[in-house]
Amino acid sequence: GDRLSSKEWKEVGSPKINDVARKKVKEILDNHYPDHILESVDANIRTYLDIRLAREKMVHPNKMVSA
Q1: How far is 63 from 41, CA to CA, in rounded Å?
Q2: Cα(50)–Cα(58) distance, integer angstroms
Q3: Distance (Å, rounded) from C-alpha 40 to C-alpha 4?
Q4: Where are the domains of the chain?
Q5: Separation of alpha carbons 22 and 9, rounded Å
Q6: d(Cα 21, Cα 50) in Å, to the nearest integer?
Q7: Is the pTM value of this prediction over 0.85?
Q8: 3-state SS of 3-60?
Q9: What is the spatial distance between Cα 29 and Cα 33, in angstroms, rounded to a whole number?
């Protein structure tokens, strides 16, 4: 977590919590590729929810997808 003192926080530019949160969300979305969801479960979830991110995009770019 973020445990900056007031002095350190001011030294790094006094970032607003919303900006810090957005940066963290972007970092997670850019680097986290969940692989614990079975394809059949994913397909079932997608029948109920408007998920626009293709399953193929949820795989790390360096990881091969089995056909």
Answers
A1: 21
A2: 16
A3: 44
A4: 6-58
A5: 17
A6: 25
A7: no
A8: CCCHHHHHHCCCCCHHHHHHHHHHHHHHHCCCCCCCHHHHHHHHHHCCCCCCHHHHCC
A9: 8
Quote the DSSP letter at residue 63.
S
Phi, psi dihedrals of residue 60, rounded to the nearest 5°: -55, 135
Residue with tokens 């109920």: 48
65 in helix, strand or coil?
Answer: coil
Q: pLDDT tens digit string along 9-67?
A: 899 889 899 999 999 999 988 888 878 889 999 999 999 999 998 888 887 777 755 54
- From CA 25, how far away is CA 37, in angstroms rounded? 20
